[in-house]
């Protein structure tokens, strides 16, 4: 069981993580480990995906019908569950991306220019 | 919808594959197999936690939680079986009482008869504006209503009579209904077997036919279908059975004792009751049938009523001698199962009982609530810890509520048994609802639904407050405090208000039952004007078909008195026709207002114990052919002559020849114990053509001991005349007190339950409060407080609450008991004796309940308590 504080943090991360997963799957089907690695690499190792959060997020997206999953064989001949984007997921990604951009811009305006460190 | 779409094992497999792929990648970068595995696991974080989170996101979760919570709650309850048993018992008593009373209210006031399109059925009552009384309708009036009105599909009339029915060698009295030709067409009940009564049966000269009820058919004829077409003997006359009425139909009127078992055409009634023929019952002056009808579709009750009132007005003009003051009212059938003027009384009695039962249930709930609250507070640490490690509050509340539900479910089951038992008691108490109604209190779906609803309501009432309180977010104080520290005042407040409420409810119930008990007490000290001790009333039913011979009737009356007087142990016997019954008959005396009267025979007055003040009583020289004689009571004598000097005077009566007053007797009670002195006239039974229905007997010793001898001798005394019942004069007095007696008994039962519940509640609350303050009290004793002062403190704390409870209860009682004014007699609703007695009782019971906790407080050993924790 998690505390309320932890839950709050998760909630904040959720939207972001969902968006990143959808964005990664734009490039083609991928298993969980691949998604995590891809996010990490494309973000220049700035974003560390907590794997414990990744799978529930995948499950949620699957439940909502934005991604679908099937078992397949990885390049290393491992059995893995592969995720790919559905039609609604694609639309969702477009919406979410523009919303995220607007939000990021708004937050940037609120925060103002970064102060030089003294 | 609640399908688990993905199995947990599938998810575990996915995590496994994730770890393997990660290991592969690490090994490619040159790590050893072991290092790679460890690193992959580190990177993943807590696999179990992820699995758990996955699990929690599934929709089946609520079901798993529920099952867990149920197991948990069941374990918690099993740990304190005493508490669980007490709570379940309390609940079943409360819910059972409410169910039984609801069942009665439903049957008497709410539930429609189980007839097709019952909402179209109405009952028509005539109304006499000169006396403001509802009356039956005369047959010609009914025929005029039927032929002139347009509002009804069918309008029919019926009359219910207790008649002697002979099957083989057995004769018994059953309720027979005489009905008009369209009666079964109106109720739309088809025959179970055979046919219903119809137009051809109600013609003059038609062969006598009857329908019998299914219950009667099963019990008397063992459900033999060949009975249709066979004869049944009603008052010794054969009636051919043409059909069987299904069981679900048992009359449309709860007024008269027994539901009808046999139906005959209304015009056949004079055949079996010659007295009816002689009285010319189909004359406009004789109001003897209730009327019921089925409205045409789309016609409102109000419209039908307006139409009948117009017809009644026309009749009042054309037949002023009989109809001048008559009008008619139309009621929905389900709202007029008995005389409309009784509705208020019945509703009031049911409301009183319902309130009492409701208070008992609330009291029980308050107790359980209090105990649950204490249990929950005792588990305060457990809850605090669970909240702190992230349990949701809703989950904890849910868990506590499930505990409540677990108490309610067996409580509900037991309640059904309790309600059946109570229904039996209700049915056996004549006049339990203010008057004698014949109710069907078998448990049916509406009562069951009601019972289930109040059970759930009760669970909410007693479960929610403790659950909310116990799971309030004060995590830190609970964790820091040692057990046994004072509870936050807010919680104490809830418990205290429960105690106050209990005392108040208890007070109200006690005052209610106290007022009825005082009424009964008062009744026992009222002078009845006759002596009910050592008196027996013997009721018989002279076969109506044998009436024609006046000679036979006269000799029968003489034989009956002679025969009874001859039985050892009997001092005297006399004929009477009513004593302390609701039967009322009036006769007009020229020059005086109408008075009530009855027929009595020689030696009635010495037998009843009514003094003859002047002149003489009836005696055997008064024969049908000799001049008519009468006796008057003291009040009537004063009314006729200021000095009461009326012996020898001849008075003209509105019925029959003039009569000479031969004596004056003392006033007595005629209808009920509460009668005010009223003028009353006695006529001589021997000068009357009726064979009578009651003989009274004065016994030397205990009257009950003579009853077997009377039964033994009866066939010799009155061959061929069924003996109905024998009861004592004291029984008869009690019967007239039945409504008050029933109310007193029921309310006393409820009040007793309330006292027990309230004192248990008070005891538990005080014991808990002492237990919680053990340390504080210990310290006080350690620094020198005397045990007495500790006891005093506990008492003063308790009596603060009790005082508020009593004040609240008294205030509510003062307002509420005024509603009872019409039911209690001879006692004021704010009777100070009752109120002070109840106050003392509540204080005494409370003191007893507080005594043990107070003693415990005084005996607290400071050394032990200070070592605690």
Outline the secondary-structure elements.
The complex is a heterodimer of chains A (118) and B (869).
Chain A (H helix, E strand, L loop, with lengths): L3 H23 L3 E2 H11 L8 H13 L3 E7 L5 E7 L1 H25 L7
Antiparallel strand pairs in A: 1-3, 2-3
Helix pairs in contact in A: 1-2, 1-3, 1-4
Chain B lengths: L7 H21 L4 H12 L2 H10 L4 H19 L1 H30 L10 E8 L4 E3 L1 E2 H10 L3 E16 L2 E10 L3 H5 L5 E2 L14 E5 H8 L9 E4 L2 E9 L16 E4 L3 H4 L1 H5 L8 E3 L1 E5 L5 H18 L1 H4 L2 E7 L10 H36 L1 H9 L4 H36 L16 H26 L4 H6 L8 H36 L10 E6 L9 H16 L4 E7 L9 E2 L7 E6 L3 H5 L3 E4 L13 E5 H7 L9 E2 L7 E7 L14 E5 L9 E6 L7 H11 L5 E6 H8 L1 H35 L1 H9 L4 H30 L15 H27 L3 H6 L2
Parallel strand pairs in B: 5-10, 7-9, 17-22, 19-21
Antiparallel strand pairs in B: 1-2, 1-12, 1-13, 3-11, 4-5, 4-8, 4-12, 6-9, 7-10, 8-9, 14-23, 14-24, 15-23, 16-17, 18-21, 19-22, 20-21
What does it look like?
The complex is a heterodimer of chains A (about 120) and B (about 850). Chain A has about 120 residues and is of the alpha+beta class. Chain A contains four helices and three strands. In chain B, the strands form four sheets. In chain B, strands 16, 17, 18, 19, 20, 21 and 22 form a seven-stranded mixed sheet that branches. Chain B has a six-stranded mixed beta barrel with strand order 4-5-10-7-9-8. Residues about 480-485 of chain B have low confidence and may be disordered. Classes of the chains: A alpha+beta (about 120), B alpha+beta (about 850). The interface of A and B includes residues 31 and 76 of A.
